[in-house]
Amino acid sequence: MFAGLNLKTRLALAFLAAAIAGFALFGDAGDPLPLRSQHYLWDLGHVLIGAGLVLGLHLLHPPLNRLRPLWRIALALAAGLAFGIASEWLQRQIGREASWRDVGLDVTGALLCEWLQLSRQAPRAATRRASAFAAACLALALPLPWLAYHADEQAQRDDFPILADGRQPFEAGRWDRAERLPPPGSDDPALKTCIAPGQFWAGASLRYFPVDWRGYRTLSYRVYLPGGQPLRLVLRIDDLEHKRRGYAYNDRYHASLMLKPGWNAFRLDLDKVLQTPGGRRMDAARIHHLRWFTPLRLARETCVFFDDLRLD
Ligand SMILES: [Ca+2]
Questions:
Q1: Cα separation of the two ends of the chain
Q2: What is the pLDDT of residue 22?
């Protein structure tokens, strides 16, 4: 397919692919995106990166086109996986978030590109048809997460000022590590999150929620703690401005909570929450992050259930 291109054109195309990859991996999406659907659209850049990677390999080494189709698919899979894992590892090292979903999107792009090429180049008609079918399936699967996120965002707007109570099927994805499950002895779903042992500050975050809290006076929620031992947690709340101020410790709200086994109910005065220890008042129109974490290393994994998180 690229055999007719001279070396200069191939290098220029490879450079372009590398530049797009660099921007998508290390460019900043700007302010944290409050909507998961927007975040997913941004992450679709990984599909382009995976496709560009496979295209680049074929450009730089045209004899790859003569490999058997199965080898070409295996090579695209391996290239997408290796690149995805390496780039996520690298992002983790520089303090950015790594995600398996992004690795999946890198691999999807790599396979999509290879199957599209095979749908035109494979020697056998049956292989060309199967490759076109596989490429179409992958391409059709890509919008599905976006549709689920979009539906959940509509549900969030309808339910507000309820922020979390397990009623919506895609609710767990609003959290950093939570499952939608009823606590023992109940059939009302809540958000279950498990805190890993041996790690300082391990916990769970609510990441996607309506951020404009103006006009509300209290934040209330319930937490179910199974087992016989009490558990100390810290609740942290910050606004978007907090990021610009370098996440200074005295620029956010902290509250120490002692959970006893069974249900625990909390109600916070938002006026007190918005006043930071550093003297600044948080921007109630742009609340950014809620996190519950352990201030101590736990001896064993401990799970809790959050329910009825709402503003009033
Ligand atoms: Ca519930």
A1: 62
A2: 62
